[in-house]
Design goal:
Elements (H helix, E strand, L loop, with lengths): L1 E5 L4 E5 L7 E5 L4 E2 L2 E2 L1 H16 L15 H7 L11 E5 L2 H4 L3 H12 L3 E5 H10 L4 E6 L3 E6 L5 E5 L11 H16 L7 H11 L5 H5 L5 H6 L2 H9 L3 H21 L7 E5 L6 H10 L5 E3 L5 H13 L10 E4 L1
Length: 330
């Protein structure tokens, strides 16, 4: 089984072989360019690395560039008995909104892997990983934010997932952006509350005059902003009120999105998952702000675990396409 998780700050794959230790390897973060997202290229490269690992090459060796079919051809034409991929489960940011034809992408990836593929919005694999296939609400907060509430039957409610310019409320990119805005206000002499964040941002990004040129042209701007989240949390830990307020606002935004996904008939359990869930100040604000009708539960696993479960269900033939959430091929 091959599981792939594509997030705003990077990508991961896990290759699980019967009787063997799982092989895990990381890939780059996707970028958003004029033509759309580079998610297809990132996924293709991770599939190639998995195929190379099965063919005997080390899993941590870079595969041929996307578009090279050698690994696939070798595997597809291999004698009976050579290990091959049974199914691929992929959860990715940007699929519903930035990939022009996710169904066609799923089909091309299935051909590349020589195996059935389920390509899902990252909300789906986050849900599978956090609640283990049970109904309820999952708030996936990393670089971006997407929330999925479902009864696993008729109701599938997605909230947010609109990217850091229009949404991703409470996510890493928005936290990093808020930290930099407070830092710039302090630099301009408008509000001294952000002085500690200004010092942290100088250490991270250099002098403020250079920030526009550093950030505005970057295709991976969301990931670059999200990388500053750890600095905001560190400054908040040191007692800075401005940084603490940014994290508290993020937790409240995440709780509001969870409440928006809580429709009648959807179990009121809520799991918070993703890198932002590791920040205590955000979690504390989330718990305080969560609507009383909802109950927070611990996440059972992460989105990569969910992608593996998606692969298992694909291999078992129990995955069906669902518009705007899951595309199956092969």
């Amino acid at each position: 089984m091959l599981a792939i998780d594509i997030g705003g700050t990077g990508s991961r794959a896990r290759l699980v072989r019967p009787g063997g230790e799982p092989a895990e390897f990381a890939g780059p973060r996707p970028a958003v360019e004029a033509h759309g997202t580079t998610v297809p290229e990132v996924v293709a490269a991770l599939i190639d690395r998995a195929l190379a690992a099965l063919a005997g090459a080390p899993a941590d060796t870079e595969s041929a560039p996307a578009g090279t079919e050698s690994a696939q051809t070798d595997l597809a034409g291999a004698p009976a008995g050579r290990p091959r991929i049974a199914a691929v489960g992929i959860g990715s940011t940007g699929v519903p909104s930035l990939v022009a034809d996710p169904g066609a992408l799923a089909a091309s990836l299935a051909e590349r892997a020589g195996a059935p593929v389920a390509l899902a919005a990252d909300a789906v694999t986050a849900h599978l990983g956090a609640l283990g296939g049970a109904p309820g609400i999952v708030v996936a907060a990393g670089t971006g934010v997407v929330v999925l509430g479902t009864d696993l039957a008729e109701q599938w409610v997605r909230v947010d997932g609109w990217g850091h310019l229009l949404g991703d409320r409470g996510g890493g990119a928005r936290i990093g952006m808020a930290g930099l805005r407070a830092a710039m206000r302090a630099f301009d002499g408008v509000d001294a509350a952000g002085l500690a964040l200004l010092a942290a941002a100088r250490a991270h990004f250099g002098e403020p005059e250079a920030w526009p040129a550093l950030l505005y042209p970057r295709a991976d701007r969301a990931g670059l902003l999200a990388a500053f989240t750890a600095d905001v949390a560190r400054v908040a830990d040191a007692g800075d009120a401005c940084a603490a307020a940014i994290l508290a606002d993020a937790g409240a935004e995440l709780a509001a999105s969870a409440g928006a996904a809580a429709r009648p008939g959807i179990h009121p359990r809520v799991a918070l998952t993703g890198g932002i869930a590791a920040i205590p100040q955000v979690c504390a604000a989330f718990d305080v702000s969560l609507p009383a009708r909802l109950t927070r539960v611990a996440a059972a696993g992460d989105p990569l675990d969910g992608a593996l479960e998606l692969a298992r269900r694909t291999a078992a033939g129990s995955i069906a396409a669902r518009p705007a959430l899951v595309w199956a091929a092969g």
